[in-house]
Specification:
With about 450 residues, the protein is an alpha/beta fold. It has 3 domains: about 70 residues, no CATH class; about 230 residues, LmbE-like (Rossmann fold); about 100 residues, no CATH class. It is built from 20 helices and 7 strands. Helix 7 packs antiparallel against helix 11, helix 10 crosses helix 12 and helix 13 packs across helix 14. It is elongated. The C terminus is likely disordered.
């Protein structure tokens, strides 16, 4: 209604109107007629306010959609990426195909940063199953020997990587025993860290009390801090397994555990000292060329997403002022909570059946705690990876209607011929990112 009263229609609004009209009529954009435009109020208004005839508008929109797909089919080289996510599975659900393609070029470097510990999505039942695995291994001669050698020292980075490699070897071998050993190694390492305990017998004596806690607490009750830490460490381990799939070790994966994420129903606002400065420190360490960001508007899903977005916004402003860098690009992605309209996104990443298989396998094998999500979407009863695939397929179907199936099936590029889904991204320079991502609320400064 606001657009109907507007004295002018922008290119973005024009593209949205034409796409919506094509989808409503079930036609290719270039097949839309003047009668089609005049049959729909917004489209009729478009013809009155824009000087171009409808066939020219349609060609303009069609050509722009093609440019977006062709851009998403390309990969960059010699790029430093910093991939950020509010929760540990947001990146894989939002833009895994584009990340995977860019990992195949050895000239690119990748760092992964999760900003919260994600403990609220780990169930007590899941933790009891983890404890059962550890009980089977903790008294073995192998674990006792590794304990004596310092393998389980929380600061042992080689040991942390070996936990992941052990688990992934089990995935490759389809061996439950090998996978369970990897899980048990990391859980023991985490317990040693939390309890600051180096005696294996003392750790073993802690297991019954932990099992009792997880068995007797009702779902949703706020956990004490040490339990929150333990659950969060399980999520961190899952992220390390995911990126280990693609050859990245623990040194490339950063867990910030920002303090605003407390487990309360109403979480705190981010503050500069507690939540923004750690992000700035990572930016200074990585010196990225491209930063990926979950780009969800306020009240569109978990409020953690929006608060993380604002913290990154502030961090990039500070980093730009300190470094003088103006050339950083931001890739905004969305996943299961909110969608881009095709007109809003400016990069469409082709997704093949092969890539869908990778995503499903990686999700099920890496995100063990999320196979049965604690807070599933109303849209889908099952793993979030299945919902992400459903969304990407729907986005492809929209473009197939707009461009025609022949454009995909007869394309000279095999990647586009193989397309069965599309990831929508919004690529922005820093100025556009600051503009579209509202500045942090005054409460941040007030909290200092």
């Amino acid at each position: 209604e606001l657009q109907l009263q507007s004295p002018e229609i922008t290119d973005l609004q024009m593209e949205k109107i034409v796409i919506d009209l094509a989808l409503e009529k079930g036609k290719r954009i270039i097949d839309l007629t003047k009668d089609d435009f005049e049959s729909e109020p917004m489209a009729a208004r478009l013809l009155k306010l824009r000087p171009e005839p409808c066939d020219q508008l349609c060609r303009q929109v069609r050509d722009n959609l093609i440019r977006k797909i062709e851009k998403g089919a390309q990969t960059r080289n010699n790029v430093r990426f910093l991939h950020t996510e509010p929760h540990h599975d947001d990146l894989m659900l939002g833009c895994l195909p584009y990340i995977v393609r860019h990992t195949r070029d050895a000239s690119n470097s990748h760092h992964f940063m999760c900003l919260t510990s994600g403990f609220t999505s780990v169930t007590n039942h899941f933790m009891r199953e983890q404890l059962k695995r550890l009980k089977r291994f903790i008294e073995t001669d192998e674990f006792k020997q590794m304990m004596q050698e310092g393998y389980f020292n929380p600061q042992n980075e080689i040991g942390r990587n070996r936990d992941v490699w052990q688990y992934l070897d089990g995935v490759a071998a389809n061996s439950t025993h090998m996978k369970d050993e990897g899980i048990a190694r990391r859980l023991l390492r985490n317990l040693i860290s939390i309890y600051e305990e180096v005696d294996l017998e003392n750790i073993k004596n802690r297991l019954p009390e932990l099992d009792h806690y997880f068995r007797t607490q009702y779902p949703g009750k706020k956990d004490p801090a040490y339990i929150q830490n333990l659950k969060g460490m399980c999520r961190e381990w899952e992220a390390e397994c995911l990126w280990g799939y693609f050859g990245w070790d623990c040194s490339k994966i950063m867990h910030l555990r920002l303090g605003f994420y407390t487990g309360d129903i109403f979480t705190e606002e981010p503050t500069v000292h507690r939540d923004v400065e750690p992000i700035v420190n990572v930016l200074e360490k990585v010196n990225p060329d491209i930063v990926t960001v979950a780009f969800d508007p306020e009240a569109s899903g978990p409020d953690t997403h929006y608060k993380v977005l604002q913290a990154i916004n502030q961090s990039l402003q500070i980093y730009r002022e300190k470094s003088g860098r103006e050339d950083i690009s931001v890739w905004g992605y969305r996943n299961v909570w909110y969608r881009f309209h095709p007109a809003e996104a400016n990069v469409y990443v082709p997704v093949s059946l092969n890539m869908f298989s990778i995503m499903q396998s990686a999700f099920v094998n890496s995100f063990m705690s999320q196979r049965d999500a604690s807070f599933p979407s109303y849209e889908h009863d099952g793993p979030f990876s299945e919902l992400a695939q459903k969304i990407q397929v729907e986005q492809y179907q929209k473009l197939k209607t707009c461009l025609g199936r022949e454009w995909f099936y007869e394309h000279p590029n095999a990647l586009i011929r193989a397309t069965r889904g599309l990831v929508f991204l919004k690529e922005m320079d820093l100025a556009e990112f600051y503009h579209t991502s509202r500045a942090l609320k005054k409460a941040i400064e007030a909290a200092e």
